[in-house]
């Protein structure tokens, strides 16, 4: 079993309030165009016409060669943090995703990365977690490499 882990609410609230992003910049404000603007907190697409926040996100505590930083979206207004095991909306709206395992040292575990069709994500996650050297998994956009969510062992 596994669980999908969205960004922590305290971190999201700080960013929504204008605290600096991973590059030390103030998050930008924009209006969502609908599909393609996934919030990394509620893990739903931000509805068309709703205000959103755009920022640089690094899903690692420290910088190192594997600590990728990239753009993400958040709802500008408070939203409910996703909690669950089922694939959330943002992990079902593309035909495939990049999935890769990381060790406890926050380094990519080579041999785990794969562009995975959406309907095969669960099986691929179970396959990656069968390796004892994998501590967690990141799901990224297969097209733009943008961070989507983290998957943890349940």
UniProtKB/TrEMBL annotation:
It comes from the Bacteria. InterPro entries: DUF1203. This is DUF1203 domain-containing protein. It comes from Ruegeria atlantica.
């Amino acid at each position: 079993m596994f669980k999908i882990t969205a960004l922590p609410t305290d971190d999201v609230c700080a960013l929504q309030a204008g605290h600096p992003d991973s590059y030390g910049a103030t998050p930008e404000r924009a209006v969502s165009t609908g599909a393609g603007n996934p919030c990394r907190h509620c893990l739903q697409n931000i509805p068309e016409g709703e205000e959103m926040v755009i920022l640089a996100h690094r899903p690692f505590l420290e910088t190192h060669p594997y600590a990728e930083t990239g753009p993400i979206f958040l709802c500008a207004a408070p939203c409910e943090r996703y909690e669950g095991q089922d694939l959330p909306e943002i992990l079902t709206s593309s035909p495939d995703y990049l999935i890769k395992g990381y060790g406890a040292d926050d380094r990519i575990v080579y041999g785990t990365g794969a562009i995975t069709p959406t309907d095969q994500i669960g099986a691929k996650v179970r396959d990656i977690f069968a390796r004892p050297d994998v501590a967690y998994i990141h799901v990224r956009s297969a097209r733009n490499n943008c961070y989507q969510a983290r998957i943890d062992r349940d």
